[in-house]
Amino acid sequence: MTATNNTPITVKDIVHDVVKNVVSTGFFDKIKITAGKKSTTIEALEKDKQVILKAVTTRPVDGWDGEFGLANLNLLTSVVNDSEYGHKDSVLEMQYQQKGGVDVPSELHYTNKSNSFIAYRFVSKDLVPDQPKYNEPVWDVTVKPTKSAVQQFTWAAGSLSNYEQYFVPRTVDGNLKFFIGEEGGANQRGGVTFAQNVTGEFSSAHKWPVNLVAPIFKLADGTDAEIRFSVKGAIQVNLSTGLVDYRFIFPAKLR
User: Fold this and answer.
1) Residue 183 above 90 pLDDT?
2) Is residue 76 a contact partner of residue 68, using CB atoms and an 8 Å limit?
3) 3-state percent helix, strand, coil for the chain, nearest multiple of 5
4) Per residue in 49-87, pLDDT tens?
5) What is the pTM of this model?
6) Cα diameter, the chain
7) Helices 210-220, 147-160: inter-axial angle, 10-degree rounding
8) Exposed (0-12), middle (13-18) or buried (19+): which is 168, by Cβ within 10 Å?
9) Angle of helix 73-80 relative to helix 11-21, nearest 10 degrees?
């Protein structure tokens, strides 16, 4: 049956979505989940505070309620990567236990069609690091990434990764360009025209780490995505999978 906007998201679907779009980046050790009756909030912070994740589901998640944390993310990935995970007879269920007279999320219990099982334990909400508050700045330039632009940036970033760790976005004659390495310097360097005929101007005294931004740009390829740039020192990647609206925020470093 095709899901409607009123149909809750299944536990199997949301866990698969989070593993594919968050855990796969390798940026986060713990993920905070706050599940309510209308939607679920998903938050995480990269260990050096260079990537902030703020996400919300488009609908409530069936059986999810309360606050809990995801850690041991390799195990969660192993569950999703089971060859039988997508089978209709493979079941992923939410488990609760009582603490102080209150039902508290305790684990995900996975049983596949072959009756193999894994019990994945949650982290107490008290052990999940505080998540930063985030107020979106005014965005100076917003673009929709194309497959070819992402491929070119990935290629250039990979080619220069041994020589330069950062890139600098700038609009030039109506085009958004990414400069990797010091422009005009006596060094290994390169550049990519990421978007043409953009609205707005962007030039700032900031730079961003290629190794963190490029994987998220690549993740945005093929999804409903936007990339936003603020001269205040932020890049934000918005991508929607239909189940979750993700925002990956990258605070800048000064050049």
Assistant:
1) no
2) no
3) 20, 40, 40
4) 999 999 999 999 999 999 999 999 999 999 999 999 999
5) 0.92
6) 67
7) 160
8) buried
9) 120
